[in-house]
Task: structure prediction
Amino acid sequence: MMTLCRRAAWRLCVAAVLVPIAVQAAEPQYFPPAGDWARKTPAEMGLNPALLEAAVSYARNHETTRALDFSDQEATFGTLLGSMPTRRARTNGLVIYKGFVVAEFGDTAFVDPTYSVAKSMLSTVAAVAQRDGKIASLDESVGKRVLDGGYESPRNAAVTWRQHLQQESEWEGAIWGKQHDFVGAAAYGQGERKPRALQRPGTFYEYNDVRINRMALSLLRVLDKPVPEVFHDEVMGPIGASTSWKWVPYHNSYVELGGKRAPSVSGGTRWGGGMWINSSDMARFGYLWLRGGAWGGKQILPASYVKAALAPSEHGPDYGYLWWLNTKGKNFPGLPANAYGALGAGSNTITVSPDHDLVIVWRWHAGNSAEFARRVIEAIPAR
Result:
């Protein structure tokens, strides 16, 4: 090649060498600035407009049957501990492809409870705590640093941060007036359970908001700061989210912190309160995770934490660190094995497909969020 390049046709030779390199160069990733998010037409992004519109039409026509005024809340989940809005939005959502808004429907600026999507947000706060050395190791006993009495029993003393994040802690006790066992229709509504024998921490999965609320309080203890403040300062502020969201505590979930009254928040809206947020801010949050915890050249969350969080636990139903996974192809049927999502009652969902550079927020819908995502993916040309 060097001999050929010394000849008169050297310009053609250089071009032949350089063009493949240029073709292989990764296209720059777009990150929306605060207060704005660039929109592109399906055609501009190489999508099939008709198929994308058909997907959005499907989503529009599959709204939840949940009451618009939340009058079904207590029958569904049990006695309230915190506030609830008086009205919710209708179904709405956004499709983010390669970082750009390519579809939007409904009132995506409406601030609504997002239920258990807040669990994935708590996982994100745990990532910040580990990044900043507030949690030395996820396999460390929570009670080593949290000395408020919640981990004094032999059972609870064995609970680790990882077990909390994977919902395998089997923590025993009560917090904010709710017991870990979910026994009793008045307290737990349609979610009541029959008594069962507790297993050794780390050996049994159970989706359990009481234990997640205990983890949230433990995060407050090690961070020495209310979780919503950390989430704002370290996550939502840096990614340019609005200030319209609010993480609402229960009426009784306050503790003393540095001589002041501080709120401890929940991992959902099962008993009121929880994360109240608009769809656009949810999309930013999902996009942060799609980008591996990085935003605009800054690594906000440890890449190692993000990778571990999206790996299945040993005993869960394809569950990571408070994220639902698709390793077995069951949680998001028809989507790739590395797809994942944050799922909340209602339904309020964030679905992420790294293979398609895709984030979908769909709120107040009926059915599996994967069906909408699958229809969107049909609009993406085969590579």
Notes: The first strand starts at residue 92 and ends at 97.
